[in-house]
Amino acid sequence: MYNIDNWKHIFKLDPAKELSDEIIGAVCESGTDAILVGGTDNITLDGVLHLLSAVRKYTVPVILEISNMESITPGFDYYFVPMVLNSKEKKWSMDIQHEAIMEYGNMINWQEVFAEGYCIMNEESKVFQWTDCKLPTQDEVIAYAQLAENLLHLPFFYLEYSGTYGDEQLVRRVSQSLNQTKLIYGGGITNKEQAEKMAEYADIIVVGNALYDNPKEALKTVQAVKK
Ligand SMILES: CC(C)=CCC/C(C)=C/CC/C(C)=C/CC/C(C)=C/CC/C(C)=C/CC/C(C)=C/CC/C(C)=C/COP(=O)(O)OP(=O)(O)O
Ligand SMILES: O=P(O)(O)OC[C@@H](O)CO
Ligand SMILES: [Mg+2]
């Protein structure tokens, strides 16, 4: 339906946080390639449906990045399924996904579903703690990327620095280690210079928190990566 291969920029909106209709409108009409709906905690079905109805007034593609079983709902263009590769517990890389397929298996349109191999790099972030992650060395990150591409054949490898700006040279190394699997970078992008830098290496950059802190600057990240 949409050409995901050409996407470069995504805004992540959190159903547990407030944004005015005016800012939601500006985000949806910014030229971003897609809106990703997701977050770590307090993600409820009500919150997801409320945000979905606000962004559905616009033509931009909308993706649910599934955080938990309770907030899964039809109505999105795509479903991104996180698999946390550097979690110490198999629950977050395999079991919860298995459970969801047991529950929703016959309702799933697999053409709309994309797995994301997550590697979470910010020890202070909620999602790192929530999913009981272990901080990998740089070589271990490269090995996770290779595992995602060559063993699991995942469409996306997501280098996640949630809330903090990451290591540009590591993003470069990861991008060099991937061929088919697309590299998503997210974390701490607050301005167009950072967006431009990370987009040199990552196939897709994700901007989240900055929309809530300084939407005017966050909106400028779109054109920065589309030059
Ligand atoms: C009815 C219908 C449409 C059915 C189809 C449903 C469907 C498409 C099913 C697919 C099958 C499937 C395998 C589903 C998986 C379900 C599931 C419960 C997955 C959980 C994934 C997971 C590991 C969650 C825990 C970690 C997490 C929340 C990851 C998301 C990524 C994230 C939030 C990163 C950090 O974001 P950030 O914005 O930085 O967070 P905060 O701002 O909140 O700190
Ligand atoms: O909120 P920020 O730090 O921009 O991170 C974006 C995204 O990678 C979160 O999953
Ligand atoms: Mg967030």
TrEMBL record:
<dbReference type="GO" id="GO:0000287">
    <property type="term" value="F:magnesium ion binding"/>
</dbReference>
<keyword id="KW-0808">Transferase</keyword>
<feature type="binding site">
    <location>
        <position position="40"/>
    </location>
    <ligand>
        <name>Mg(2+)</name>
    </ligand>
</feature>
<feature type="binding site">
    <location>
        <begin position="208"/>
        <end position="209"/>
    </location>
    <ligand>
        <name>sn-glycerol 1-phosphate</name>
    </ligand>
</feature>
<feature type="binding site">
    <location>
        <position position="12"/>
    </location>
    <ligand>
        <name>sn-glycerol 1-phosphate</name>
    </ligand>
</feature>
<dbReference type="InterPro" id="IPR038597">
    <property type="entry name" value="GGGP/HepGP_synthase_sf"/>
</dbReference>
<dbReference type="GO" id="GO:0120536">
    <property type="term" value="F:heptaprenylglyceryl phosphate synthase activity"/>
</dbReference>
<keyword id="KW-0443">Lipid metabolism</keyword>
<feature type="binding site">
    <location>
        <position position="14"/>
    </location>
    <ligand>
        <name>Mg(2+)</name>
    </ligand>
</feature>
<keyword id="KW-1208">Phospholipid metabolism</keyword>
<dbReference type="InterPro" id="IPR008205">
    <property type="entry name" value="GGGP_HepGP_synthase"/>
</dbReference>
<dbReference type="Pfam" id="PF01884">
    <property type="entry name" value="PcrB"/>
</dbReference>
<comment type="pathway">
    <text>Membrane lipid metabolism; glycerophospholipid metabolism.</text>
</comment>
<keyword id="KW-0460">Magnesium</keyword>
<dbReference type="GO" id="GO:0046474">
    <property type="term" value="P:glycerophospholipid biosynthetic process"/>
</dbReference>
<keyword id="KW-0444">Lipid biosynthesis</keyword>
<keyword id="KW-0479">Metal-binding</keyword>
<dbReference type="InterPro" id="IPR039074">
    <property type="entry name" value="GGGP/HepGP_synthase_I"/>
</dbReference>
<keyword id="KW-0594">Phospholipid biosynthesis</keyword>
<comment type="subunit">
    <text>Homodimer.</text>
</comment>
<comment type="similarity">
    <text>Belongs to the GGGP/HepGP synthase family. Group I subfamily.</text>
</comment>
<feature type="binding site">
    <location>
        <begin position="158"/>
        <end position="163"/>
    </location>
    <ligand>
        <name>sn-glycerol 1-phosphate</name>
    </ligand>
</feature>
<comment type="function">
    <text>Prenyltransferase that catalyzes in vivo the transfer of the heptaprenyl moiety of heptaprenyl pyrophosphate (HepPP; 35 carbon atoms) to the C3 hydroxyl of sn-glycerol-1-phosphate (G1P), producing heptaprenylglyceryl phosphate (HepGP). This reaction is an ether-bond-formation step in the biosynthesis of archaea-type G1P-based membrane lipids found in Bacillales.</text>
</comment>
<protein>
    <recommendedName>
        <fullName>Heptaprenylglyceryl phosphate synthase</fullName>
        <ecNumber>2.5.1.n9</ecNumber>
    </recommendedName>
</protein>
<feature type="binding site">
    <location>
        <position position="188"/>
    </location>
    <ligand>
        <name>sn-glycerol 1-phosphate</name>
    </ligand>
</feature>
